[in-house]
Each structure stands twice: as structure tokens, then as C-alpha cells.
């Protein structure tokens, strides 16, 4: 999983040729720490977009730009735009179903 910053977000997410799943997270977020192994487990699987993470403490401008109010929040970007957001998924099955709906 790639660490995303305001320096690489435009190139690596908005201009990407393929969909990119972005998780907005923070190191102090307990639920984010529980979700991380799930994201690592599915990263690289068929049908799963490239995954990147934004630490909202280090990148508050990106969090504001995408109206992140609760973490973890997941967005899938395609062609420079994102679809519906997923907030704090409670299972891998729910996460994968959302991904397949978005892609």
C-alpha cells in the first residue's frame, strides 16, 4: 500500500490510469488499525484496485478537500473523481462488495 501525500496525490490518484482505493486514516484510530490487515490482505488481489493511504494528521488539506469527518473513510478514484464513500466497514465481505460496486 502506498502512502499518499499532497505531493503525490494528483499524480498517483487523480491522474492514475486505473482505479485507486484511498483510505483516510490516522495512527491513533483503533478501528483504522483493525482495518489495516484487511486492506493488506486484499491488496493486489484480482479485481481490487491499487490501495493508498492518507494520514489525516499529516495531510489535513487532503482530508478537508474530500470532506473527511470520520475515519476510516474509503474512496475509490477513477478518472480523477470518486464515487460513494465507505465509512468504517465492519467486514471484509462488506468492503469487497463495495469495491465491486464502485469499479
TrEMBL record:
Keywords: Disulfide bond, Electron transport, Redox-active center, Transport
Domain Thioredoxin: 1-103
InterPro entries reported for this sequence: Thioredoxin, Thioredoxin-like_sf, Thioredoxin_CS, Thioredoxin_domain
Disulfide bonds: 29-32
A single Gene Ontology CC term: cytosol
Keyword Disulfide bond: yes
Single GO MF annotation: protein-disulfide reductase activity
Gene Ontology BP, a term: cell redox homeostasis
Keyword Electron transport: yes
Cited Pfam families: Thioredoxin (PF00085)
Similarity comment: Belongs to the thioredoxin family.
Name of the protein in its database record: Thioredoxin
